[in-house]
Amino acid sequence: MLQKYPGLILVLAVIAGLVGGAVSNRFLHGFTFLTQQTPQQGEILRTQRVEIIDQEGKRRAWFGLSPQGNTGIGLYDQEGHVRAALSVTPDRVTGLMFTDQEGTRRGGFIVSPDGEPAVELYDKDKKCRIRLTATTDGEPQLWFYDRDENPRLSAGLSPEGNVTLGLAARDRNATISLNIRANGNPSLDLTDQWDNGKTGGLLVSAF
After folding, report:
1. Is the pTM of this model over 0.90?
2. Are residues 58 and 78 in contact, defined by beta-carbon separation less than 8 angstroms?
């Protein structure tokens, strides 16, 4: 019947197109994936320090610049003791430190300005007792210290493949060094000091 009225068909088609467009716009308005939007630059907050507190107002974390000039992040427990801290010092030392329940430093991972990494373990008096490091020339070393932080026992592997185990007295006036060279030759060296602390030299060499 509508074939007799081609003009009416044209009008209905236009109306249907307008209605369909309006309906589609209404129902698809919230779907942002249909169009690609240009990301907007966020606002920049400039400050020296930000602190995070819990519901009781206790400090639980901070991020920013310390009074000593260190840039870092600190995490605190419920009692207000710092338990972990990541920092970069003004002289470019990067460190990650861990503490006990009293806030005493007990362990850390440090990278020196020249790129030498080290793991350190401390006693309750904050004295370093164990240090594991890799020197800049690629030599792994393990050190054990007494309560006064004097090195007493060490082990190392040189880039050439020489293995060394060393023992030292507290004042380092006597040392024992067990070595296995890269070619497989072992040696045992005992040294002492005299004449106002001058190194006396090799006393015994075995094997």
Report:
1. no
2. yes
The structure tokens listed for 19 are: 């209605």
Query: Residues 6 or more apart from 162 whose CB is under 8 A from it?
Result: 179, 180, 181, 182
**26-30, 61-65, 113-117, 192-196: the lowest-pLDDT one:** 26-30
Structure tokens at 167: 């023992």
d(CA 76, CA 91): 25
Dump pLDDT digits (tens) for 124-178. Answer: 999 999 999 999 888 999 999 999 999 999 999 999 999 999 999 988 788 999 9
Residue 121 has pLDDT above 70, yes or no: yes
What is the pLDDT, as a whole number, of residue 38? 55
Residue 101 region, left (φ>0) first, then alpha (ψ -120 to 50), else beta?
alpha
Nearest to 176 by CA among 186, 185, 194, 164: 164
What is the torsion angle, in degrees rounded to the nearest 10, for the CA atoms of residue 5, residue 11, residue 15 and residue 17?
90
Please state, in angstroms and rounded to a whole number, the distance separating the CA atoms of residues 68 and 87.
Answer: 11
In whole angstroms, how far apart are CA 49 and each of 15, 35, 66, 95, 114? 62, 39, 8, 19, 28
